[in-house]
Amino acid sequence: MRTVVFDLDGTLADTSGDLLAAANACFRDLGHGDMLGPDDALTAFHGGRAMLRLGFSRLGAWTEAQVDAQYPRLLEAYAADIDRHTRVYPGAVAAVEALRAAGFATAICTNKPEGLAETLTRRLGIRDLFGALIGADTLPVRKPDPAPYVAAVAGAGGAVPRSMLIGDTDTDRKTAAAAGVPVALVTFGPEGQGVARLNPEALLDHFDDLPALAHRLIPL
After folding, report:
1. N or C: which end of the chain has fewer CB within 10 A?
2. What's the domain count of the chain?
């Protein structure tokens, strides 16, 4: 079965507002106020530790031990208010439904912890659209290691040679390369057309274009 695997943050949904709020909760607890703003959305899509590093760097000298100490607090704050600002990107649901109607399997492979990804997708009402969900801690390794991608395809009932990845960052580009599959990077995230620098097999400007793209890039 042909399979389309999706990244979550920055690909299926704009989660940046809630991610940044969780990081800022850490800095407020430390007495510094909000250290991150809307212009840091791209950093948010690179994960909690990336946001903490950026915030601490704006305060001056910092250590990785400070990041490690605050990371559990960030996850706690995020879990407590995971979907206040998050929105599914326009056309995403219709595109996934169209793929499934055409006989494609669909799955999610994300570097968000699995429990948080399960919670978020259920609150957004999209979890049942995907046959498998693999998170950052589902396996001992995470993207760009290809193992989570392979597990997502297998969990959805597909085969890796007849699959592709939809993502938004260099991590997704590297994951697809490691798995030997094509990748389409979305251009409606914070980097916009800048993702073209990563030389993906395709750029996805709107989810309306995804069904035709999947038919073209995934072999029968």
Report:
1. C
2. 2
